Amino acid sequence: MIKKRLNIRMSGLGGQGAVTAAHVMAMAASKDGKFAISNPFFGAEKRMAPAESYCRIGIERIYDRGELVFPDVIEVFHPQVITMGKSYTMPFYSGIKEGGLVIINSDAPLLTEEDIQRLNDLRVAVFYINGTQVALEVAGTELSTNMTMIGSVAGITKCVSMNSLDLALQERFGKKFVASGGTATLDEAIKKKFAKKEMLLQKNLDTVKRAYELGIEWAEKNKFELQVAAMAAA
Amino acid sequence: METTSLIGTKNKKGQVITDVRHMMFEAPRTPSFYTGSEVIKEAIRRANVDVMIAYPITPQSEAAALIGELFAEGYIKEYFRGESEFAVMSQCAGAAFGGARVFTTTAGPGTMRAMENFPMWAGARLPIQMIVTCRGINSPLSIQPDTLEISYLIQTGMLVWHAETAQDFYDWILKGYMVSEEPDVHLPLALCCDGFFVTHTKDVVNLTPADMCLPPYDPYRSPVPCMDMECPPVRMMRDPFVMKSNYISYATHASWQQEVWAAVERSRKHTIAWLDGLIETENTDADILIVSSGTAVSQGREAIRLLADEGIRVGLVKIKTIRPWPWQEIREATKNAKHIIVPEFNVAGWLAREIKASIPDSDRVVAAPHVCGGMTMPPEIIVSEIKNVLGMRDHALAGRGS
Question: CATH number of the domain at A2-228, please?
Fold first, then answer.
């Protein structure tokens, strides 16, 4: 399915970098010359509390703001989003569009028979990626889990290019970035995991790439297609 | 008498003090992918602000912190944190009385806490600019977007503008000072947006060159004398009318209130020139119009696209300023409309009330959909409302409850 707009909902827990992931995706799409916006949605800034972010990418100007009620793609950053209902709505996939995609970071299947049936009825594909494990293997820290969520959706849908993701990561982590106190603390935490900033950038980019490849592999094997149309020539 | 112009000279940071019309309308723009909070910082970098006073409250805290960085970089002369929003707004008054260009930001409960100061600012004719990143104000606590606080601000005598996007915000912060500081206006401006939808959303914004800035505020253009040791701000501060308690003292107070509102009216001509009109319209010959302000306009634009796909033509009126209220423009734009849909991000529907009071056949106004307390307004519910008005069947919205 080729669409004018790809709406991505990222459901995670506070501290996992779901907000950063959406920002990086949108920055990359913008660098690709597409229209993109991203925004977060959370309550009190608290570790492990539900935190969602939204990334909209398209070929015409995007006005829509706020929570994504009817997404094409849902990314689940943590099993607790499903098992403990830590999402903005229950079930976590409510509102997903027909022919959509669910990407879940988990080492084991989490869906009930009923969930599977309802997603099948909507022809929604489900891709499990053990993102935390990939992050540990490639970057050496689970703090890079969000990079696997970026990479997997980019690999499957090609909504952003690897080159632009590289540039977006450099922009986000390569210079001073002011966000809320919570985000600033986490930025410091991840910087401490790496000896040098260049190393942080390289390891995170490697993690994105690995997940990107896993995404492509899965999409080819399952003959799944969900893409944003190319920009019309100016 | 010899006169000199500051235009073309440089400020302490090496920015060129630029003719504002050139800076805003002709100078090259750089597209930048920023959050609304970062955009506020970039506008203030170019605004030649003297004093910024801050107090943290979501969702404006990031903007306030970023402007602290501008202070550290030397773009702002004075920056400090007040004890509460009430203290901040009182301190803003003090700085403005002293002849400074003043900037502050607040939101939701902070706006409400500081409310006593706003009619005082207007009455004292202080051209302070206050960013209001609207959020829920009632209990139980919500930090999410909700525009109810605007309904309290619109009777204070302040100018009240409602931005739709970060681009509006960027341009209007700079243009806002130009309107606010006109001698025949000289009023505070509450520049509002819907919190998170604008402040925390990353979007492309076209910025003016960083080496150009506004001319500094000239306090001697104030219609009331600026404060010095010989001349307290307006006579009432030294010798309040209420102390006399006679007819002439109350009549003076009454006429001053009328003068404040007359100044709001006089701001129209400046605002129209700077903002290219108090409203923006699209296809107002359509039978159905969406009329709104802020983020609800953006959601309306998406709804119009969805309806166009089904062959239903809907026009749009974006209201940029709530004070001054563009009643004539709205009357003109809605004269052919059979149905006027007013989507709002608050439970009270204050905007629909204002519109109903301004147009003939006000039963054309559909005061819906209303979402509040941080709920989102998917374009689909505006579509649903319009189909309902047209007597069409619509697929019931499952919403996210599934």
Answer: 3.40.920.10
